[in-house]
Design brief:
CATH class of the largest domain in chain B: Alpha Beta
Largest sheet of chain B: 6 strands, parallel
Order of helices and strands of chain B: EHHEEHEHHHHEHEHEHEHEEHHHH
Number of domains of chain A: 1
Structural class of chain B: alpha/beta
Oligomer: heterodimer
CATH topology of the largest domain in chain B: Beta Polymerase, domain 2
Helix content of chain A: over 70%
Distance between the termini of chain B: 54 Å
Number of helices of chain A: 10
Strand content of chain A: under 5%
CATH superfamily of the largest domain in chain B: Glutamyl-tRNA reductase, N-terminal domain
Distance between the termini of chain A: 16 Å
Strand order of the largest sheet of chain B: 7-6-5-8-9-10
Number of strands of chain B: 10
Radius of gyration of chain A: 19 Å
Strand content of chain B: 5-15%
Number of strands of chain A: 0
Helix content of chain B: 55-70%
């Protein structure tokens, strides 16, 4: 095998990566400031998120020019996942006031970006076919959408608890935030969009694995199945039994937790070589 | 220079029994303003009369003291004696008046700090003054700036954050669960006065319908008519709860009527769709345990009071920051007023300079038009024009500088205005030019034509 894939995987982070990293950190601090009552910081905070998003896009684009496909490995896909998260956050911010959501999403995007760029590159996958790339791309997109739904569900749980426990002096109460019903509805819609994408990714992944003749007793497979089952169950109980609110939010987080574990296993295995 | 002033009475200085004596009806304001500006030493005036204040903002005629006559005018208009309102009338002049207007517009002088109503009232009062023709350049500028300051204060501080009364807090809490109340249904349980207020507030926020139920159907009918709702029998309570999004309860029952057992059935029937219960009855109508059920949000009167107190405390904190913004803006406005004093001088200076330059340029153009000139001759004409303009403009100041007793002071002012450094080395030619009295200089040589 030529040394090209190794070279590609070890492409150093671009200057845009550092800008994005710093902007994510500053945006988190600014959004925390808004939550703490510095209302005038809001417009700057959103501006900084836009800077982080642009820099993140530039970094992915720059890697593209270096022949590093955003879905060529789990490591790259994690970087793309962070980008999808930030994109979704910005889109939702056009309609809703998501200060608390930003405090959740920005650090997650930052961590994903850091893991994607600074973790050891590991070995190049020698057998990454187009089927593999489509599988990784769709799985990343699906998990990205689930991640957004999970961020909204986490916000729901925090806001719901604040309201139920009547913590009127909590930061989550001081910021007017997004209404519980909107958070619940938006998360549900996202799952409706993400679920078919994730399902196709799962099927393609199964075909890919069977083509490669890999063993089926790897731990990520049942975890991926748990993710799928959790979201499928969520859609069913919501539709049939009218589940919503706290129960739906918890189930969303359970499904996403399983998806995160799958990603973590892939990443650790890649780093381990 | 004309001076801004404020004369008035407010909740700070007088109870309502005194304030109402001086209050003006909306339709009286325009005529009062016209009478004020015609009969008193007042050049510009605005009158604001709300439940919490009656104030005249005005500009005195040049050199006049307007506040005394305005006090007398106000009491005469209301046919009361000055003694009737005692020391309640206050006045501010100059910078204190500017600060007061800015503070009022920013709701820092309001009974409930941060309330939004006063800004609208002030804008309306300004509109009346403008229509009546009693608002001029200075007062207009002051008010426009005050509106800008109010906007800044609202956007940069938390002064308007959080509701300041129980009904608004109920709407605010409902907004946290449902967001927009459009399409939502409100159920009023009991026909108490408090529930009427809260229901009206919620209904005004866009709720779809309002249903009233009460043990006594007659009272339910009366309340339903009053708040534009529908009365339903008490026996249907469980079904009504299943259909409602927000419940306001204020019955006179001694025992809880909204029990956990009832709400378990209701929550299931609703498929755990969120429902907010605002229990403003004492003793309480709702068992606290219903708040533990999924999708049920319960708040009692103490909760609402707690939020109001907390919001007011937040506003008081924000008022400090807002006060600094007002101070800064008032300082800038005063600076602007001061510069208005020198505007005529600046205009006269520019006009004089332009006139001198235009006259010399016209002469030169005339000269050039008479026949063809070589490039060297044209250059000479241009140089001569510039020299002539400079000489003419500097003649009077130079003469005055030499003749004046306070020559040194004038020289210092000139150095300051033109950024001159007398100690700097100047060329021989410039030194010579400076020594020559322009009046004694011969006319520059004319170009041969």
């Amino acid at each position: 095998m030529s040394s090209t894939p190794e070279r590609l995987l070890s492409v150093a982070p671009s200057p845009a990566f550092w800008i994005a990293g710093i902007a994510y950190a500053v945006a988190t601090a600014a959004l925390l400031g808004v939550l703490a009552g510095k209302a005038s910081l809001r417009k700057y905070a959103i501006g900084i998120v836009v800077v982080a998003w642009l820099a993140h896009a530039a970094d992915i684009g720059w890697r593209g020019t270096q022949h590093v496909h955003p879905a060529q490995s789990v490591r790259e896909a994690i970087g793309l996942l962070g980008f999808i998260l930030t994109s979704g956050y910005l889109l939702a911010s056009l309609r809703y006031r998501l200060t608390l959501g930003g405090v959740v999403v920005m650090p997650v995007s930052l961590v994903l970006l850091l893991v994607a760029r600074l973790s050891p590159a590991g070995d190049a996958p020698e057998d990454l076919s187009s089927l593999g790339r489509v599988h990784i791309s769709l799985a990343t997109l699906g998990v990205g959408i689930f991640a957004l739904a999970s961020a909204l569900s986490a916000m729901y749980l925090v806001e719901e608890r604040t309201l139920k426990k009547k913590k009127f002096d909590a930061l989550a109460f001081k910021d007017k935030g997004t209404p519980l019903e909107s958070l619940d509805r938006l998360a549900h819609r996202l799952i409706w969009v993400g679920f078919p994408i994730f399902t196709v990714a799962l099927v393609l992944g199964a075909i890919w694995v069977s083509k490669l003749g890999l063993s089926l007793d790897r731990p990520e497979y049942p975890l991926a199945a748990v993710t799928w089952v959790a979201f499928a169950a969520l859609l069913v109980v919501r539709q049939v039994y009218g589940w919503r609110g706290k129960r739906a939010a918890k189930l969303t987080l359970l499904g996403f937790g399983a998806a995160l574990l799958v990603l973590a296993i892939y990443l650790v295995r890649r780093m381990g070589g | 220079m004309s001076e801004l002033f404020v004369v008035g009475i407010s909740w700070r200085t007088a109870p309502v029994a005194v304030r109402e004596k001086l209050a003006f009806r909306e339709e009286e304001v325009a005529d009062t303003l016209v009478a004020l500006t015609r009969g008193q030493p007042v050049a510009e005036a605005l009158l604001i009369s709300t439940c919490n204040r009656v104030e005249v903002y005005g500009v005195a005629k040049p050199g006049a003291d307007a506040t005394g006559p305005v006090r007398d005018f106000l009491v005469q208009q209301r046919s009361i004696k000055l003694a009737d309102i005692g020391d309640a009338l206050y006045e501010h002049r100059g910078s204190a008046a500017v600060r007061h207007v800015f503070r009022v517009a920013s709701s820092l002088d309001s009974l409930v700090v941060g309330e939004a109503q006063i800004l609208g009232q002030l804008k309306a009062a300004y509109g009346v003054a403008t229509t009546a023709g009693t608002s001029g350049a200075l007062l207009g500028r002051c008010l426009e700036r005050a509106f800008g300051v109010a906007k800044r204060v609202r956007s940069e501080t938390l002064i308007a954050r959080g509701s300041a009364n129980v009904s608004s807090v109920a709407v605010d809490l409902a907004g946290r669960v449902f967001g927009d109340l459009a399409g939502k249904s409100i159920l009023v349980v009991g026909a108490g006065k408090m529930s009427r207020l809260a229901a009206k507030h919620l209904y005004a926020s866009g709720a779809l319908r309002i249903v009233v139920t009460n043990r006594s159907p007659e009272k339910a009918e009366v309340l339903a008519r009053e708040i534009d709702g529908v009365a339903r029998p008490w026996a249907e309570l469980e079904q009504l709860l299943a259909e409602a999004d927000v419940v306001i309860s204020s019955t006179g029952a001694r025992e809880p009527i909204l029990t956990k057992a009832l709400f378990k059935r209701v929550a299931k029937a609703r498929k755990w769709k969120p429902i907010m219960v605002i229990d403003i009855a004492v003793p309480r109508d709702a068992e606290p345990a219903i708040g533990e059920l999924d999708g049920v949000y319960l708040f009692d009167i103490d909760d609402l009071d707690k939020v109001v107190a907390q919001n007011l405390a937040e506003r008081a904190k924000a008022a400090d920051h807002a006060g600094k913004i007002v101070e800064h803006e008032a300082g800038q406005f005063e600076q602007w007023i001061k510069t208005q004093g020198v505007v005529p001088t600046i205009r006269a200076m520019r006009s004089h300079f332009t006139k001198v330059a235009d006259a010399e340029v016209a002469k030169a153009l005339d000269q050039l038009a008479r026949k063809d000139h070589s490039p060297a001759q044209q250059r000479e004409v241009v140089q001569r024009v510039v020299q002539l303009v400079v000489n003419k403009l500097l003649h009077a100041p130079t003469a005055a500088l030499r003749a004046g007793e306070d020559a040194e002071l004038r020289a210092a002012v000139l150095c300051d205005l033109f950024g001159l450094d007398p100690d700097a080395v100047v060329s021989d030619r410039e030194s010579q030019a400076a020594m020559d009295d322009t009046a004694e200089r011969p006319e520059p040589r004319k170009v041969a034509t």
